[in-house]
């Protein structure tokens, strides 16, 4: 892969963004750039991203949105921007260091034999933050198992947000039909790509809790995920046939 674009949606991530930029640009990957999709963060994350772009000419782009429009729509906007700019691969990740930056080279290497690489918490070598209480780990594992079982997905981690896509996969997907927000967006995109026959590979990661800032997870997002998982079966029931036609 010659050009990889990392997409990071942000809302009040001013504490994390400079550290993330430093970590990303320290990786042994020559053509890696960053796209920040900011939802009008009150803490000035969007403006900070612009300043970081000036300090790293040609390596950081910023999409400014009017407000909190949701994780899914942020990624869709980011995908379209990255594809238009000629990215050959697109990496999704959070700004809060819950996704291990040091695993990115391994994910890039894995993409040689796959269409999509998932950073996986639920395969051998992966794991969740050891400081999490049992109920939180159980809730995370159950949500992942629930989505996998309902949709018949073979991957072990379908709810995680650390993933690397070949651009050809994103170009083949009906992005205009994807409406999910919250982590169900990750489930929906995985389901669609799997239904289209693309090959997935999982790389083990340790998912750490954020160190700075506040989590965006809430009860509404969890409820959306529970109900929308079933809706996906109906929404994409004829997708593979439509693509063949």
Could you explain how this protein is built, in words?
With 245 residues, the protein is an alpha/beta fold. The protein has one domain (4-244): Alpha-Beta Complex (Spore Coat Polysaccharide Biosynthesis Protein SpsA, Chain A), CATH 3.90.550. It contains 9 helices and 9 strands. The chain has helices spanning 17-24, 45-55, 71-84, 104-110, 134-151, 167-172, 184-195, 219-235, 239-244, and strands at residues 4-10, 32-38, 60-64, 89-92, 116-120, 127-128, 163-166, 200-204, 206-207. The strands form 2 sheets. Strands 3-2-1-4-7-5-8 form a 7-stranded mixed beta sheet, sandwiched between helices. α1 links the parallel β1 and β2 (32-38). The two termini are 30 Å apart. The model has no long low-confidence stretch (mean pLDDT 91).
Helix coverage percent of residues? 40-55%
Shape: globular
Mind telling me the C-alpha Rg? 17 Å
Span from first to last CA?
A: 30 Å
Q: What would the average pLDDT be, to the nearest integer?
A: 91
Q: Major sheet: order of its strands? A: 3-2-1-4-7-5-8
Ranges with pLDDT <50 over ≥5 residues?
A: none
Number of distinct beta strands: 9
Q: Helix/strand/pairing class, anyone? A: alpha/beta
How many domain regions?
A: 1
Report a brief summary of the structure:
With 245 residues, the chain is an alpha/beta fold.
What is the strand and helix layout of this fold?
Elements: E1 4-10, H1 17-24, E2 32-38, H2 45-55, E3 60-64, H3 71-84, E4 89-92, H4 104-110, E5 116-120, E6 127-128, H5 134-151, E7 163-166, H6 167-172, H7 184-195, E8 200-204, E9 206-207, H8 219-235, H9 239-244
Helix pairs in contact: 5-8, 7-8
